[in-house]
């Protein structure tokens, strides 16, 4: 079982392990009854603390994904016994953090959206939205000066 963790992510390491194992189960990489590494082996493999690995396993057991048999190990439960994958409310959807790698593919689809580009270079800010009276005075002075210049140009072209 291969789990990628990103140490600089906003998502905790235990949550990354949790979602990665769920994704492995739902994608079929981990089959029902398959034995998982011990907490100690997982922690050593991922270079994380025992507490971090244990926290992920405990949460997976609480949510019905895993079961532990004393003296034998930790195993994947049957699919139909497992609860829906909860999406953490604290997840920041900053896609550069590789969070989609840890969400199940079926859950990820509901967060997909298309961004529309807005051309800001062709827009002008409404001066009425600006709080500074100085800008309004400058704008009025520029407008009147431009108008008088246009009149002068018009008179000179006749």
Notes on the protein architecture:
Strands 1-3-2 form a three-stranded antiparallel sheet. It has helices at residues 13-27, 39-46, 50-62, 105-108, 133-156, and strands at 35-36, 66-69, 73-76. Helix content is 41%, strand content 6%. It has 158 residues and is mostly helical. The chain has two domains: 13-111, Winged helix-like DNA-binding domain superfamily/Winged helix DNA-binding domain (Arc Repressor Mutant, subunit A), CATH 1.10.10.10; 127-156. Keywords: DNA-binding, Transcription, Transcription regulation. InterPro entries: Tscrpt_reg_HTH_GntR, WH-like_DNA-bd_sf, WH_DNA-bd_sf. One of its GO terms (molecular function) is DNA binding.
Features:
158 residues; mainly alpha; Arc Repressor Mutant, subunit A; 2 domains; three-stranded antiparallel sheet; 5 helices; 6% strand
Q: Name the beta content range.
A: 5-15%
* CATH class term of the largest domain: Mainly Alpha
> Which strand order does the major sheet show?
1-3-2
The tally of helices reads 5
The CATH homologous superfamily name of the largest domain equals: Winged helix-like DNA-binding domain superfamily/Winged helix DNA-binding domain
Helix and strand sequence: HEHHEEHH
Main sheet properties: 3 strands, antiparallel
Give me the CATH architecture of the largest domain, please.
Orthogonal Bundle
Indicate the mean pLDDT: 73
Radius of gyration: 30 Å
Question: Can you count the beta strands?
Answer: 3
Bulk shape? rod-shaped
- Termini, distance in Å? 86 Å
Which ranges are low-confidence, i.e. pLDDT below 50, for 5 or more consecutive residues? 89-93
Structural class: mainly alpha
Tell me the helix content: 40-55%
User: What is the domain tally?
Assistant: 2
